[in-house]
Amino acid sequence: MMVRFLRSGKWELVGMFVLASVVSVLLAFLFWNMMQEHFGYAELKIGSGVIVLLVSAGFGYWAAQRFGQRLDSLFLAIKQAVNGNYEVRITENGTNSFGPLYREFNELAKNMEEKMKLLQQLGEEKVLTDSASNEAAVLEERKRMARDLHDTVSQQLFAIHMCASSLPKLQEVDEARAASVLDQLIQMSNLAQKQMRNFIAQLRPMELEGKTLQEALDKWFPDFCRQNKLQGVLEWRLNEQLSEAKEQQLFLIVQEAMANVVKHAKADGCTLTLTDTERQVVMMLSDDGAGFKADEVRRGSYGLSTMQERAQKLGGTAEIISKLGSGTRVRVTIPKIYRGEQNR
After folding, report:
1. Does the pLDDT at position 11 exceed 70?
2. pTM of the predicted model as reported, rounded to 2 decimal places
3. Burial 11-21 (b: 16+ CB within 10 A, else e)
4. Rounded CA separation 151/153 (Å)
């Protein structure tokens, strides 16, 4: 009964109040009896009141410290959970009136950790499944392009070859006719060149095929910056090997973010940083461009929605921070709840 009494928060406060009252009254009573021969009635009353006030203040400070420490523990745990640390737990004390609340929080954090781990696992599996589907689509697209090449460029080249083969003899017989054939050759070669450019424009390089994220970025990032006249700095601070799904999504996010730098930022330089902590992976891209006012840009602009969707597939977040005249910063965080296969 006494244990339940002490575990209840309100009864604990009531108990402290009663204890403070009893102690203060006893001390005041002792002071009155011991000092009544030395002080007058008014002085005894003042002294007793001071004792009651000091004892009450001492007990109040003690109670505030006890409850403050418990609230601080709960606040810090909630803050860590908000920042993505779902492994946080609060140490319980059997006589702590906050014990039931701590247990509820620990149970909630445990459930959130399990659900977020499952969510990220499913997200990674979906990314890889989509990747496999994309490979099948790429294979089908290659077959289509092979047919189109055969029906267009291949036939054009064959016609050019036939015309070019007959041109020397035709020049000996009929120069006017040869000049007409030469014009046809020029037109057909221009058409074939145009068709080839159209096919090449439809192709997309597979930068990550057979490479890690670091290897792909070491090749792609400086090339992209050089082609777009940007002074780019790549800072690689990742300590762990990422899963294939995380690498795919991060690479696509980097591509989207860099495209936005070229389209919107009017920047001379940018810095791409990839780092990680025990709990999460962080990608940061900052530029020295014109920046913008947040209230003047639609939510879907600057590719934010696309980057957010890719980050959310793995339980992460993406945000853009900018100030007019001070450049733009893209920050993407992905928790390490589900690590997948570290070595591929």
Report:
1. no
2. 0.50
3. ebeeebeeebe
4. 7
